[in-house]
Design goal:
The chain has 206 residues and is mainly beta. It has helices spanning 40-55, 145-158; strands at residues 8-16, 22-31, 67-79, 82-92, 111-119, 125-130, 138-139, 142-143, 162-165, 168-176, 181-190, 195-196.
Amino acid sequence: MPVHQGDVLRVAARCKRGDEADVVNVFYLESSQTDPSLANEDVLNAISAWLTNAYNDIESYIPSDQNPIDIRVDKVGLVSGLIKVLENVGTTTWGATFDPSGTGEGLPRGVAALVFLLTSVGKVFGRKYVGTLTEAASAGDSLVTGAITALGSWLTKMLTKVSVGAGNDLFPGILSTRTLGFERFVGGRVRGRVGYQRRRAPGVGS
């Protein structure tokens, strides 16, 4: 079925490290789409372009042996207070311009940049572990200035709405089990120290 106004989409953006481990980031978008003539393919293409445009800004800090794989989009909702997949919208590819080009070794699995995406509700926010990054992105336990700047550009684009067509937009945010609703992002920040994603198994998105 087409995407309708008020639908919440879960976007799983997947790459594969040189050691074949999956790297997955998960994003949520709320639809304002009112044009029923727009096909799911239009939505998938717009999301791919949005992600590709943002990740282009950090590709020089992503190891060249990390490959973009696919982008899966599902409609989701809160069922008994839990986020559940309701329907698959489709799977698409990354844009051809996203081409990781970082040189040198990648940071160990689980070590990544940590980016916070904020809503208007103080205790409701997104947390993204962005990687895998090259060793050149960090000095000790801190990100280098160039990496912080690149991630800042990435963040700015990730906070921007996805335009599917005139008046048909997708807004980034979080489907909150605290407020039992969708909370749009209003800002964010890049943490200067590297983060370590302890809580998830390899291949599970953040």
